[in-house]
Design brief:
The longest helix has 16 residues, at about 65-80. With about 400 residues, this protein is of the alpha+beta class. It is globular and about 60 Å long. Helices cover about 30% and strands about 15% of the residues.
């Protein structure tokens, strides 16, 4: 409980302390009559990031979900280093508070690993500041990934009149970002009631209520299990991450979900630590999202405001498939179709680019690895016979051109 009260203090929520604490040569935290050096606080807080916390074990039935969110917020401040990418800082500061919405961009400029053509101007409209940052970001990303910021777009209710391809950082998205043009029409969305206050027990009840309905789309129970245990946590398991103690175990996840779905309704299920870790992790992805099926039977995890009229598109430069809403309009007397961004989604084969790039060459598999020079995780590709890790997708070799005059290889 003392940690709940400490981590819940408003100071940790202020956006501008990100610069104050990260750029400080020497910092001391003072709380009442007590004080502690920032390095000592970091050393104490960082192990909490790796710890799986069971609400019942620590007696936080009321405060458990809130404490976990606060823990993540504080630990991100402790673990995050200097000069990171804009998208990493966006994720770390998404719960931070500021008075002026322009500071969602301006407060991060001093911490970025690249210099952007942005000069703080508090006379500019907020929407213009966000558009300028989006465009500047695109120009800086010379390689595949210049549309990554689309993953931070999420349709709100009521919808904004601003361009939907620019994230509205003045409004907090409900969904956590996924660590992720096929023209598939989506159907059968089931909006999730899982919120910030939902516990793992709530999640188990929701799974037993929702999944059996969705499972009728597949022939056998084993087929259903194989699909859903991957979707619920977007295929993020410890065997795909080098030296990870954070992600759940694949075998424990599949076995645990099987026990849940096989159990009788109303039966209390005793969760193993491995199953609890999987559900706790998957809950972060599933909050507010909906399980959907497309018209050709593909199943995925999508944004809360998606409807059966929406389509799923793969956009070059964006790592996640996007849900788009077709809008019929008239232009110079002719009917045209425009699209509004609804949000990112997860579909297994689409998230790995198999629809566009095809299967991985023999012997390769996708993993996530930590690059010390960059101080962050990257999607990578392991060649299993040698164990060597490559940061470049081996499938790009089929499309890559020769270096241009600027030394950059382009994907054709």
């Amino acid at each position: 409980m003392p940690l709940c009260h400490l981590f819940g203090r408003p100071w940790f929520e202020r956006l501008w302390i990100q610069q104050e604490i990260r750029l400080a040569q020497s910092a001391v935290l003072i709380c009442g009559f007590h004080k502690l050096s920032w390095p000592a606080f970091r050393k104490a807080a960082e192990p909490l990031w790796l710890k799986t916390i069971d609400d019942k074990e620590i007696g936080l039935l009321t405060y458990g979900p809130i404490f976990k969110e606060r823990r993540r917020h504080v630990c991100a401040l402790c673990i995050g280093g200097l000069f990171q990418s804009f998208e990493d800082l966006l994720t770390q500061t998404r719960r931070c508070k500021c008075t002026d919405p322009r500071d969602r961009v301006y407060a991060l400029l001093g911490l970025l690993d690249q210099k952007y053509d942005i000069v703080p101007d508090y006379e500019k409209p907020v929407a213009e500041v966000y558009q300028d940052m989006f465009k500047s970001y695109m120009k800086k990303q010379h390689t595949y990934g210049n549309l990554k910021l689309l993953a931070y777009c999420e349709m709100h209710d009521p919808a904004s009149n601003n361009p939907s391809w620019v994230p509205d950082w003045s409004r907090e998205n409900k969904c956590e970002p996924l660590m992720t043009s096929d023209g598939l029409g989506a159907t059968g969305y089931s909006n999730s009631d899982l919120s910030e206050e939902s516990t793992v027990d709530d999640f188990v009840i929701a799974l037993k209520a929702i999944l059996p309905q969705r499972m009728t789309l597949l022939e056998t129970f084993e087929q259903r299990l194989e699909i859903f245990y991957l979707i619920l946590c977007c295929d993020s398991f410890s065997d795909s991450l080098e030296d990870s103690a954070i992600l759940p175990n694949r075998r424990a996840a599949k076995s645990g979900l099987k026990d849940i779905l096989r159990s009788d309704w109303g039966t209390k299920i005793s969760l193993s630590k491995g199953t609890f870790k999987y559900l706790d992790y998957a809950l972060g992805y599933c909050r507010y999202r909906a399980i959907f099926s497309t018209t050709d039977g593909v199943i995925g995890l999508g944004p809360p405001l998606a409807t059966s009229a929406d389509v799923i598109a793969l956009l070059p430069g964006c790592f996640s498939p996007m849900v788009l809403r077709p809008l019929q309009m008239w232009h110079r007397g002719n009917p045209i179709t425009r699209y509004r961004v609804v949000g990112e989604c997860y579909v297994q084969n689409l998230i790995e680019g198999k629809v566009v790039l095809g299967e991985f060459p023999h012997g390769y598999e996708r993993v996530t690895t930590f690059v010390e020079e960059e101080n962050k995780f990257f999607d990578a590709y392991r060649y299993c016979p040698s164990g060597k890790i490559h940061l470049e997708d081996p499938r790009f070799k089929r499309f890559r051109s020769e270096p241009g005059e600027d030394g950059i290889r382009k994907v054709l």
